[in-house]
Amino acid sequence: MTDTTDTVENRSEIVFLYDAVDANPNGNPLSGSNRPRIDPQTQQAIVTDVRLKRYLRDQLDDDGHGVYIRNVQEEGEQFTRAQLLEDRLKAVDPDDYDLDDEEESEQFRDDIFGEFLEESADVRYFGATMSVDDTYAKHLPDHFTGPVQFSPGKSMHTVNENEEYDSLTSVIATQEGKEQGGFDLDDHRIQYGLIRFHGLVDEHGAESTKLTDTDVRRLDTLCWRALKNQTISRSKVGQEPRLYLRVEYDEESYHLGGLDKDLSLDDGASKPDEELRNVRDLAVDLDAFIDRLEGASDQIARVRVVASDVLQFAHDGKEGGPELLYGTIEEAVGSDAVEEIDVYDEYLETLATEE
Amino acid sequence: MRLLISLEADADAEYKTSYHHKLRGRLWRALDGTEYGAEHDDAPTGLAFSNIFPWDEIAEGDERSLLVASPREELLATMAESLKRNPEFNVGDMPFTVTDLAPVEPDVGEPGTRGVIETATGVVIRLYDERREAYGIDSESGSPTYWQPEHGLEPVRDALDANLARKHDRFAPDYVPSPTDVGETLFDGYELLKTYALPTTVTTGVEIQLVVSKWRFDYRVRDDTHRRHLNLALDTGIGGRNGLGFGFVNIVERTRPGETELEGLDAFA
């Protein structure tokens, strides 16, 4: 059970890189055939924060955590928000309270507030809008503002769209008599994209959704595992997490901001954008990133980091794998402050447990 | 990735055990005239398929299924499109019509997951001169020896790893370590269920006696590389002659790291 009294006290800044090979990391439903979202000016692939949060919610759900905003269908019916809410609050029965009595009504409000957040890990992270008219909802705030915010991600380089081919999924989706029919047969993917996300964990917002330290520690493995586990299907296949890094600050209301923008592709060690096809075709330049971390080392409590063994880095004329990254961060902020994340050993500690 | 093909029997028929060559023919016909059409002689083909199941006498109107696996989604997509256009699906004297197509995406699970993979069709393990010598197996040189229980388990482990490494070299990105690079075997446990001989037409007019075996393999996913290797085995089949439908495997049990086999106990305490 999550310890709801242990809310987050430190602000964190997250940089998360994952890549997509022959995939459609985020289709645009307005484009007719769900083409990958691409910035028409810069030709960078775009992945919305909504898409990322969907992966994270699905992984939370798979891990047995309660999730309010689910994408669950039964017999073709999407659950309504009211049904989802009721599902979260099964343990609190309004019939057990005399809602005309002010004191009991107050108790009911406290109970559903606590129960709702306890049972809805995703709301503790990302918030939710309670746009339902329901006995429960009337006693909850209109919306919860999530203390964990991600900005839309963009590829660190220009991308090319693949030649079209008819994907298996599309073929099947268009069979006659199928409810999910109506898609174009055309399937569009990008050849390669290294997508860069920026996230923030706000310690002030954490209070309102009771986000705990355990929740934040869970993020350190959740992002990685979500990309590993929630992208095996359809056009999402071919995506791999490459770098997750969370800088936790120990000075109130302080964060560097825009840390993701300090990472770029190293020109010398990377192929030209149009020739990028997989992670081996590039190296991430760390120079600006390390400089900024070093400048803020007094404000940094810890850096938690994990990188793919095949991602290459460049720093100060040197090239190398994750060890170069870990070593240079240690030099910048002190070795005591750097923790390598062991994704698969650590995540078990943050799984939901039965009461 | 897999393509689940749903079939309806067009007539009563005897379920023939020597269907392999005919079924292979029907599947490759679905790829005729496409960029994959000429690949059926390439080895490894990267295409594996199950029996038509359930295995039983066929009555008109019966519903049966077939799974086709490949690491290449595009190949399966091409096949699906062809089957959709031409749903007549005759396997020798067993006439069917394709009634539905669906994608299936098995995954052994993330590191820490335990499970069992079972063979759905027999596994062909061939030992050639060099390997026979290494394991001290006497036989005439030049033609392969089919593995039998008296040869021991070591040749099986090595042959499955080496065979998967060839598939890995063809279908996996070159920067990912191969099954033979990692110094660990693919499975933790090898339980032999049975061996049997099967007369099989390998090409028109050529019938040979294959010795095949059925297995249950225990696994625990060590890391991402191991996960890729096991998933590749699900996509390509294991052992030899996958192009004839041998070596097709399924996950039959799976315990994820967050789940405990010890009901009610905290296995991670």
Short description:
The complex is a heterodimer of chains A (355) and B (269). Chain A is an alpha+beta fold.
List the SSEs and their pairings.
The complex is a heterodimer of chains A (355) and B (269).
Chain A: E1 12-23, E2 44-47, H1 49-62, E3 73-74, E4 77-78, H2 81-88, H3 102-119, H4 121-126, E5 127-129, E6 143-145, E7 148-150, E8 153-158, H5 168-173, E9 190-201, H6 203-209, H7 213-229, E10 239-249, E11 264-265, E12 283-285, H8 287-295, E13 300-307, E14 312-315, E15 318-320, H9 322-333, E16 338-340, H10 343-346
Parallel strand pairs in A: 12-14, 13-16
Antiparallel strand pairs in A: 1-9, 1-10, 2-8, 3-4, 5-6, 7-9, 8-9, 10-13, 11-12, 14-15
Helix pairs in contact in A: 1-7, 8-9
Chain B: E1 2-9, H1 20-29, E2 48-49, E3 63-69, H2 73-85, E4 88-91, E5 94-104, E6 114-119, E7 123-124, E8 126-127, H3 129-135, E9 145-146, H4 154-171, E10 189-203, E11 206-220, H5 224-236, E12 249-255
Antiparallel strand pairs in B: 1-3, 1-5, 2-3, 4-5, 6-11, 6-12, 7-11, 8-9, 10-11
Report on this model:
The complex is a heterodimer of chains A (355) and B (269). Chain A is of the alpha+beta class and 355 residues long. Chain A has ten helices and 16 strands. In chain A, 28% of the residues lie in helices and 23% in strands. In chain A, the strands form four sheets. In chain A, strands 1, 2, 7, 8, 9, 10, 13 and 16 form an eight-stranded mixed sheet that branches. In chain A, helix 1 crosses helix 7 and helix 8 packs parallel to helix 9. The radius of gyration of chain A is 22 Å and the shape is globular. Helix content of chain B is 23%, strand content 30%. Chain B contains five helices and twelve strands. In chain B, a hairpin with a 2-residue loop joins strand 4 and strand 5. The chains are: A alpha+beta (355), B alpha+beta (269). The interface between A and B is medium-sized, with 28 and 28 residues.
